[in-house]
Amino acid sequence: MALGDCWKQLSWFYSQYLLVTALYMLEPWERTVFNSLLVSVAGMAIYTGYVFMPQHIMAILHYFEVIQ
């Protein structure tokens, strides 16, 4: 029963995502392309933040002389 409730909740969230982004109007293959691009851009942004943000934070801290 818990698995069914979980599936129903995920289905509701996906439906809300389609409605908010107006993706419900697209054909399935167009929706797949859009979602693939969205996931790719989000993944690249997370990766870039993970790799480069520590360097930028350290540079900012050195600039304001928080770290010697």
Automatic annotation (TrEMBL):
Subcellular location: Endoplasmic reticulum membrane
A GO cellular-component term linked to this record: serine palmitoyltransferase complex
InterPro entries for this protein: Ser_palmitoyltrfase_ssu-like (IPR024512), SPT_small_subunit (IPR051900)
Alphabetized UniProt keyword annotations: Endoplasmic reticulum, Lipid metabolism, Membrane, Sphingolipid metabolism, Transmembrane, Transmembrane helix
Transmembrane feature ranges: 33-53
Pathway in which the depicted protein is active: Lipid metabolism; sphingolipid metabolism; Sphingolipid metabolism
Record GO biological process: ceramide biosynthetic process
Main location: endoplasmic reticulum
Source species, domain of life: Eukaryota
Mode of membrane association: Multi-pass membrane protein
Pfam families xrefs: SPT_ssu-like (PF11779)
Entry GO MF terms: serine C-palmitoyltransferase activity
PANTHER family in alphabetical order: SERINE PALMITOYLTRANSFERASE SMALL SUBUNIT A
Family: Belongs to the SPTSS family. SPTSSA subfamily.
Protein name from the UniProt record: Serine palmitoyltransferase, small subunit A
Organism: Seriola lalandi dorsalis
Native organism taxonomy: Eukaryota, Metazoa, Chordata, Craniata, Vertebrata
